[in-house]
Amino acid sequence: MEVGAESFARCLPRLRRRILRATFVALDMEFTGLHSTSLQNNEPSLFDSPAERYVKARQSVQRFTLLQLGLAIFSKENSNKYVVHSYNFFLFPSTLGIRDVEFTLSASSIQFLSHYGFDFNKFLKNGIPYMNEVQEKILRQHLLAGTWKVCSTSCANRDVLKKAIDEVTSWIDAAKEEDTMILQDLNGYHMLDVQLVLRQALENVWTEPLGDKKVMVKKVSPEHRQLLENSSHDHCQKKLILLSARGFTNLFQILVKAKKPLVGHNMLMDLMHLHDKFYRPLPESYEEFKKNIHNLFPVIIDTKTVTKSVQKKCLFPRVSSLAEVYAVLCSSNLNPKGPPCPVIALASGCSRYAEKKSPHEAGYDAFLCGSVLLMSAHLLLCRSTDDAVEAEPSFSQYLTVLAEHVNKVNFIRGGVSSINFSGEDAPCHHPPALVVHVRGWPGLTERQIYQEFKACCRFDVRRLSKNQFILLSNKYKQLVLRNYRHHPHLQVSVYRHWRHSPSVNCLLQISGIVALWSLLAFALGGARSC
Q1: So what's the architecture of 2-131+248-420 in CATH?
Q2: Kind and range of the H or E element at 436?
Q3: Closest alpha carbon to 24 in 77, 81, 72, 86
Q4: What single DSSP character describes residue 324?
Q5: Count of CA atoms in the C-beta half-sphere (13 A) of 385
Q6: Where are the alpha helices (DSSP H) in 384-501?
Q7: Among the four 282, 319, 418, 455, which has the fewest Cβ within 10 Å?
Q8: Pair 56, 37: CB distance under 8 Å
């Protein structure tokens, strides 16, 4: 279930076979942070359009990185049973290249994951490398030019490399040609790093991996070394170096080529990180981002969007988190007359999730996500017709009943309910707004207004004019109007566009001036004629 750098290459062929046979794939990610607080006005807001939110989220995605990616591969084994292989991939940016990678940590995100038992040592010491197309192109150019280097800046990597170099340099002076020595206890991509560094530093050595965390070092002549470098059996050929440095990107490209339905929960940030880390740096254009994602994954299903529909159409409790939705779907008899939901069985190597809950572990959340999709789709299918539903519905039938939700990704706190990755977004519709008129309180800021009203309800605030602010909230309450009816400095009323909009007021003022001048001209013209 857990895959790190040490075992990734060995697991890749099996993962490819399972993805190609899959019915669909569910995905979840854990990040070093969500929304950067160091950037001004970067918090998500009810005022945001999808394009405005993309600009904010893009800046955060560029600062943070992935800690863990979970994949749950759902395969239909027989007519009414889905078998799930769930994986946790610990990821760490590739250190093989000409430029080092920098990323930011959010204290609250790290603390949150630590509370749920996340093992940061696996991320740091055994994370699978990855790179996007731009980084790969740069590395390829430096490999061809021979100007690449290993950016092993962590203390752990430096210690491993220093120990290996010290052992080899102390041995090589007394060694004869064709003598060998063994380096031991090399984990994951240290196997490649050590060989590359030794070959670059010493012209008269050759290296070969032996497996079982061991590398053989042989003393050779420069002529023999050149022959070995041109051999097709060299484990450090440029194409193999590139394959190793690409790491998880190899699996990402398998997913892209397979074109299986991709399932997530509140998956906008997941899609943005997929694009930025494994495909290309996020474009400035929101529409270009949508187009790219749709080309990579033509069928995307966000279970947050699906469960919103289930809550409206069925007697479904209003729960928000993925784990809560899963629990309700598993425990409730929401479809007493229809055929039972398909059986969802964890594969033998993934049985831990059947025995123990592991919230905010990416592989577990991906499993929940795919399970919620199947149960929700089955429920919607049974409610969509008065006719009897087949005892064992096909996944294509589920996709048909989910058609209105396909490629619609949930949009949290904004002007639309979802982002449409296969067409135009719906027009923005904001909840009813309040307007605050300030009197006798000079210099009041948006932050101060927010602090003033946050006890009543969670509002987003935007300045309307020098002495006016707009408040937006999904939970609009008459309580605010009542409590501030007699406030000495703040007058609160329902926002009316024709009354409070600065542009409308400006237009009315101009129209009034024009009307006044017209009236005066008419009066003066009439006086002269008399």
Answers
A1: 2-Layer Sandwich (3.30)
A2: strand 433-438
A3: 72
A4: H
A5: 11
A6: 395-401, 446-453, 478-483, 497-500
A7: 455
A8: no
**Residue 397 CB burial class (10 angstroms; 0-12, 13-18, ≥19):** middle
User: Which range (264-273, 317-326, 358-367, 425-434) has the least confidence?
Assistant: 425-434
pLDDT digits over 427-443, tens only?
887 767 788 888 888 88
Read off the pTM: 0.80
CB distance 24 to 344 below 8 Å: no
Measure Cα distances from 498 to 294, 501, 502 in Å.
40, 6, 9
The architecture of the domain spanning 148-238 is 2-Layer Sandwich (3.30)
3-state secondary structure of 435: strand
Residue 440 confidence (pLDDT): 83
Taking the CA atoms of 346, 406, 306 and 425 in sequence, report the sign of the dihedral they define. positive
Alpha-carbon distance of 235 to 423, in angstroms, equals 47
Is the per-residue pLDDT at 502 higher than 60? no
Tell me the residue type at 194: V
List the one residue out of 406, 476, 397, 403 whose CA is nearest residue 435: 476
The full set of domain ranges for the chain reads 2-131+248-420, 148-238, 434-495
